[in-house]
């Protein structure tokens, strides 16, 4: 498995409130994490930084022998996310300028070719194979609720004025219930984790076209960010791209 990590401030923002990391545990487990912060002043980057740093600490200190089943992994991730949520929420209550801050979270725990994904907010995970592309996660957004209730179409959702209004985020409420997804990774394929600064600006067809270019995985990551910036770059843009291709340039 090869990977690359990119985070860019974009063309219009003064602060990058996204945070990303890819960690490898001494016992072969891996963890990809992405957080897209939100809040007044600079509080969004406080929330996303807290989420990433806390997740790092929990992961690097875990006894991986306890993560021997999918249920054990899910229980561990649930407990960690709940603890981080409480910490960010309490920090927002007592820290000037941090009231109401929160962040999205994608946490992908990788064990061999098996992934457990914990998800909050509207950051996304896509899975690309040579035949297919699938959006693994479902946005916790107002617009997605309208789509699921049949009130608007997916095409209408793409240009809805409240597209960026999310209904669940880490740290804005005292408790949280993340969504979990399980995924098996096969060769050849790509796993793309991104903030909405990417997914709002380029289509899955454009993503797939970049992934098929004869470039290194690092340059594919940079190309994704570049295209989002060329398409407006109104938001911070973050990407973690994992390749399951032995033939990667």
TrEMBL record:
PROSITE patterns from the UniProt entry: PPM_2
Cofactor names: Mn(2+)
CDD domains: PP2Cc
Keyword terms: Hydrolase, Manganese, Metal-binding, Protein phosphatase
Catalyzed reactions per annotation: O-phospho-L-seryl-[protein] + H2O = L-seryl-[protein] + phosphate; O-phospho-L-threonyl-[protein] + H2O = L-threonyl-[protein] + phosphate
Lineage: Bacteria, Bacillati, Bacillota, Bacilli, Bacillales
Entries under InterPro entries matching the protein: PP2C (IPR015655), PPM-type-like_dom_sf (IPR036457), PPM-type_phosphatase-like_dom (IPR001932)
Keyword Transcription in record: no
SMART domains: PP2C_SIG (SM00331), PP2Cc (SM00332)
Domain PPM-type phosphatase: 2-244
EC numbers for this chain: 3.1.3.16
Protein name: protein-serine/threonine phosphatase
Class of enzymatic activity (EC top level): hydrolase
């Amino acid at each position: 498995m090869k990977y690359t990590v990119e985070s860019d401030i974009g063309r219009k923002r003064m602060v990058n409130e996204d945070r990303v990391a890819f960690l490898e545990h001494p016992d072969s487990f891996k963890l990809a994490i992405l957080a897209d912060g939100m809040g007044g002043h600079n509080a969004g980057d406080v929330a996303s930084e807290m989420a990433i740093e806390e997740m790092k600490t929990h992961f690097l200190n875990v006894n991986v022998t306890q993560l021997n089943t999918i249920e054990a992994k899910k229980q561990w991730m649930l407990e960690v996310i709940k603890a981080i949520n409480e910490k960010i929420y309490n920090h927002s209550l007592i820290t000037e300028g941090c009231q109401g801050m929160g962040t999205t979270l994608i946490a992908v725990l990788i064990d061999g070719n098996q992934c457990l994904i914990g998800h909050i907010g509207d950051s996304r995970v896509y899975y690309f194979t040579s035949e297919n592309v699938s959006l693994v996660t479902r946005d916790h957004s107002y617009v997605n609720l309208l789509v699921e209730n049949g009130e608007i179409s997916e095409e209408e959702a793409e240009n809805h004025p409240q597209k960026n209004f999310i209904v669940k985020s880490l740290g804005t409420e005292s408790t949280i219930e993340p969504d979990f997804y399980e995924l098996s990774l096969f060769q050849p394929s790509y796993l793309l984790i991104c903030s909405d600064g990417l997914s709002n600006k380029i289509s899955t067809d454009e993503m797939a076209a970049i992934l098929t270019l004869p470039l290194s995985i690092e340059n594919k990551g940079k190309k994704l960010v570049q295209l989002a910036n060329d398409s407006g770059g109104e938001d911070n843009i973050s990407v973690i791209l994992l390749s399951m291709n032995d033939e990667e340039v």
